[in-house]
Amino acid sequence: MKQFKFQLEALLRMRRMQKDEAQMRLAQATSQYHIELAALQNLQSEQKNLMDLFRANQVKKQTVDTLKNYYYYFDKLNINIAAQQEQVEIAEQYRCTCLAALEAATTNHKLVEKLKEKRLDEYRAEVLQQDQKMLDELGMQVFMRNR
């Protein structure tokens, strides 16, 4: 009997490649999300440190220019933090999109993989049936000769 050949092998390879690409995109998106989150945490830490410095310097007499500088810097930090929070949200949304794409690609790959397994099982059953038929015929011939 001829060897087993899965007719949809090209589709299986394509689905495997799609799954691998989706995994790579998810890894990159997760990495980018962590980078954006770290940048946000750095800005928030900088804001906290500046607030601590400002409170420590409140005991001393401050000039109006110094207070204005603190105000402007706090304002700039707040704007930067808001912008960075938006970047974190965008990165999280992209990561979720990549995760959904990976789930879909994995499902598609598993479907074709299961189909291949089913066809392989059918092939094995057919081979087993043909082998059994051949053995039965040989047994019958031996029985007829020995009679």
Average pLDDT works out at 92
Name the poorly predicted regions: none
Helix content: over 70%
Oligomeric description of these chains: single chain
Per the principal axes of the C-alpha atoms, what is the gross shape? rod-shaped
- Structural class by sheet pairing and helices: mainly alpha
Rounded to an integer, what's the Rg over CA atoms?
A: 34 Å
Alpha plus pi helix count: 2
Largest beta sheet, briefly?
Answer: none
Beta-strand portion reads under 5%
What is the number of beta strands? 0
End-to-end Cα distance, whole Å, is 32 Å
The string of secondary-structure elements, in order, is HH
Task: Explain what you see.
This protein is mainly α and 147 residues long. Helices cover 90% and strands 0% of the residues. α1 runs antiparallel to α2. It is rod-shaped and about 125 Å long. It starts with 8 loop residues before the first helix and ends with a helix. The mean pLDDT is 92.
